[in-house]
Amino acid sequence: MRVLIAEDDALLREGLAALLRAEGIDVVATLPDADSLYATIEQHDAELAIIDVRMPPTYTEEGLLAAIDVRTRRPGFPILVLSAHVETRYASELLADDAGAVGYLLKERVGAVEDFMSAVARVAGGENVLDPEVVSTLMRRGRSPLTALTARERDVLELVAQGDRNGEIAAKLHVTEPAVNKHIRNIFSKLGLFADDAGHRRVRAVLTYLREQ
C-alpha cells in the first residue's frame, strides 16, 4: 500500500511514518501542510492519504478542504482524517458523497496500534470507519427520527457507524448474526431507507444522524 501523510506536527508526522513503515507500508511522501496534497498524491500514485484536519496557515479546516478537493477530483479515493477533537461536521462533509473509503479518528487512537492499523486497512479497502467517541457524541445528540430506535437498535447503529460488520456486531453485543440482521432491517425501515434508494443504506443511516446536528 502506498500512503501519503499530511500533518503539520513534525513529531506526529514522523511517528506515523515510522509506524506505517514498521508494518510494511510504503510511505511515499510526508507533508507539513495541505497546499500540495492533490499534486503529491498524483505524483507518487498514492493509494491512501492520512490527513490532519487543522493545518497551516489558519489551523482551522485546511486539511478538510484539501481532503474534499481530492475526493472531488478522485471520487472514492481513500482518506483517513485525524483530528484532536470531535468535530462532527467534518465527518459529515466527507461522508456526504456515499463513495465509502473515509475514516475519521481522534489522534489519541494512533497509540492503539492494532486498532489504528485496522482502520488504515479498512479505509484503504473501501470501508467507512468512524471513531467511537465521534459516534457516541452523535448518539447523545440524536433527535428524531433517531428517537424512534430502540436502545438495542441504537447500539447496533453505533457499531455500524464505527464500521463493524454484522458478525463483529453480533460478537460485541453477544447476540446472533440473524438478530443483528433483523435490527439493521428495523433501523433502515425506521429511518426511511429502502432497498431501491440510491447509495449505500449503511452509509445513509450514519448520515441521518450526522446531519441532525
TrEMBL record:
The keyword Transcription applies. InterPro entries: CheY-like_superfamily (IPR011006), NreC/VraR/RcsB-like_REC (IPR058245), RNA_pol_sigma_r3/r4-like (IPR013324), Sig_transdc_resp-reg_receiver (IPR001789), Tscrpt_reg_LuxR_C (IPR000792), WalR-like (IPR039420). Coiled coil: none annotated. It comes from the Bacteria. One of its GO terms (biological process) is phosphorelay signal transduction system. Keywords: DNA-binding, Phosphoprotein, Transcription, Transcription regulation. The modification 4-aspartylphosphate is found at D52. GO terms for molecular function: DNA binding. Residues 142-213 form the HTH luxR-type domain. Pfam families: GerE (PF00196), Response_reg (PF00072). Residues 2-122 form the Response regulatory domain. CDD domains: LuxR_C_like, REC_NarL-like. This is DNA-binding response regulator. The lineage of its organism: Bacteria, Bacillati, Actinomycetota, Actinomycetes, Micromonosporales.
